[in-house]
């Protein structure tokens, strides 16, 4: 018989009372980001920013798929999950978390790329999104709301940094694609932004996370998962470079790029 390669989740975890606090704080942040997105929709005369937020929130339904391969566990005891799939109990707070992180930052990148973003500025935002991901995940992790289990590499206060390598690319990819397709996403077709946003969420997870997923479920221990995470880091840098090569402008050209959303005379 083959040996089991898949790490065992901490099924005895009990959801602490802090779950309500984490959910409430994420809903507050989502509300603030949604107000800004509504303002952007009104200012630019397109529902695209709002559709980005909706698509990002719906992307939370992809979470249990990522949790199985990425070894993430939410306590089953002491909570009524929002939904359950693949034996993973998904908490309600993930809906607003997806909405403000992927949707809000995706809107930010849509605006910044539209205004003219240099490669160095894109890299700066890439690492800022690492910080935003830490701000999102560290409170819940350290309060016992969920846990990364198995031989997770490069952990910082319980957070494996390989997750930031995938998560930080999602809003960048979204901002780039929505600018490239903004002439298509007009009129009723703006609704296509919603399914496109769900694709934007899934693509970096698979394209960047697969070496770490493979290592986590390979049975090779910490040595294997660290190698997998380094490969994911390389793929993350490659993705940002390729996206930037398509949508970024030369540093000297930023002054000549029209301000995002500004209409020229006669429009």
Structure description:
- This protein is mainly alpha-helical and 267 residues long.
- The chain has one domain (18-250).
- 60% of the residues lie in helices and 5% in strands.
- It has helices at 18-44, 48-58, 63-70, 94-115, 119-142, 162-167, 169-180, 193-216, 221-247; strands spanning 72-73, 83-85, 88-90, 147-148, 155-156, 159-160.
- The protein has a two-stranded antiparallel sheet. A two-stranded antiparallel sheet has the order 2-3. Strands 5-6 form a two-stranded antiparallel ribbon.
- A hairpin with a 2-residue loop joins strand 2 and strand 3 (88-90).
- Helix 1 (18-44) runs parallel beside helix 4, helix 7 (169-180) runs antiparallel to helix 8 and helix 7 (169-180) packs parallel to helix 9 (221-247).
- The N and C termini lie far apart (71 Å).
- Residues 258-267 have low confidence and may be disordered.
Write the SSE topology.
Layout: H1 18-44, H2 48-58, H3 63-70, E1 72-73, E2 83-85, E3 88-90, H4 94-115, H5 119-142, E4 147-148, E5 155-156, E6 159-160, H6 162-167, H7 169-180, H8 193-216, H9 221-247
Antiparallel strand pairs: 1-4, 2-3, 5-6
The gist of it:
The protein is mostly helical. It has nine helices and six strands, in the order αααβββααβββαααα. The strands form three sheets. Strands 1-4 form a two-stranded antiparallel sheet. The chain has a two-stranded antiparallel ribbon with strand order 2-3. A two-stranded antiparallel ribbon has the order 5-6.
């Amino acid at each position: 018989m083959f040996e089991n390669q898949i790490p065992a989740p901490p099924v005895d975890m009990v959801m602490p009372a802090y779950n309500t606090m984490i959910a409430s704080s994420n809903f507050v942040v989502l509300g603030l980001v949604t107000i800004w997105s509504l303002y952007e929709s009104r200012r630019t005369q397109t529902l695209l920013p709002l559709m980005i937020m909706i698509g990002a929130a719906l992307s939370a339904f992809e979470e249990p798929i990522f949790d199985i391969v990425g070894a993430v566990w939410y306590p089953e005891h002491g909570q009524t999950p929002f939904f359950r799939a693949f034996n993973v109990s998904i908490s309600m707070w993930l809906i607003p978390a997806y909405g403000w992180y992927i949707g809000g930052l995706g809107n930010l990148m849509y605006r910044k790329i539209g205004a003219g973003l240099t490669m160095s500025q894109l890299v700066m935002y890439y690492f800022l999104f690492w910080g935003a991901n830490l701000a999102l995940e560290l409170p819940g992790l350290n309060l016992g709301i969920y846990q990364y289990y198995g031989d997770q590499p490069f952990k910082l206060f319980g957070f494996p940094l390989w997750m930031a390598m995938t998560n930080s690319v999602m809003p960048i990819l979204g901002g780039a694609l929505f600018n490239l397709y903004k002439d298509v996403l007009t009129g009723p077709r703006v609704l296509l932004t919603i399914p496109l946003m769900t694709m934007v969420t899934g693509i970096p997870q698979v394209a960047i996370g697969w070496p770490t997923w493979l290592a986590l479920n390979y049975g090779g221990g910490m040595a294997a998962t660290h190698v997998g995470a380094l490969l994911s880091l390389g793929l993350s840098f490659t993705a940002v470079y390729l996206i930037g090569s398509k949508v970024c402008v030369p540093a000297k050209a930023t002054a000549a790029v029209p301000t995002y959303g500004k209409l020229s005379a006669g429009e």
